[in-house]
Amino acid sequence: MPIAIYAGSFDPITNGHISIIRSGLVAFEKIIVAVLINPGKTPLFSVDERFKMISDALSNEPRIEVDCFDGLLVDYARRRNVQVVLRGLRAVADFEHELKMANMNRHLYQEMETVFIMANDYFYVSSSLIKEAASLGGDVLGMVPKAVAQKLREKFFPQEPCQNKE
Amino acid sequence: MPIAIYAGSFDPITNGHISIIRSGLVAFEKIIVAVLINPGKTPLFSVDERFKMISDALSNEPRIEVDCFDGLLVDYARRRNVQVVLRGLRAVADFEHELKMANMNRHLYQEMETVFIMANDYFYVSSSLIKEAASLGGDVLGMVPKAVAQKLREKFFPQEPCQNKE
Amino acid sequence: MPIAIYAGSFDPITNGHISIIRSGLVAFEKIIVAVLINPGKTPLFSVDERFKMISDALSNEPRIEVDCFDGLLVDYARRRNVQVVLRGLRAVADFEHELKMANMNRHLYQEMETVFIMANDYFYVSSSLIKEAASLGGDVLGMVPKAVAQKLREKFFPQEPCQNKE
Amino acid sequence: MPIAIYAGSFDPITNGHISIIRSGLVAFEKIIVAVLINPGKTPLFSVDERFKMISDALSNEPRIEVDCFDGLLVDYARRRNVQVVLRGLRAVADFEHELKMANMNRHLYQEMETVFIMANDYFYVSSSLIKEAASLGGDVLGMVPKAVAQKLREKFFPQEPCQNKE
Amino acid sequence: MPIAIYAGSFDPITNGHISIIRSGLVAFEKIIVAVLINPGKTPLFSVDERFKMISDALSNEPRIEVDCFDGLLVDYARRRNVQVVLRGLRAVADFEHELKMANMNRHLYQEMETVFIMANDYFYVSSSLIKEAASLGGDVLGMVPKAVAQKLREKFFPQEPCQNKE
Amino acid sequence: MPIAIYAGSFDPITNGHISIIRSGLVAFEKIIVAVLINPGKTPLFSVDERFKMISDALSNEPRIEVDCFDGLLVDYARRRNVQVVLRGLRAVADFEHELKMANMNRHLYQEMETVFIMANDYFYVSSSLIKEAASLGGDVLGMVPKAVAQKLREKFFPQEPCQNKE
Question: Which domains does chain E carry?
Answer without folding.
Answer: 3-127 (3.40.50.620)
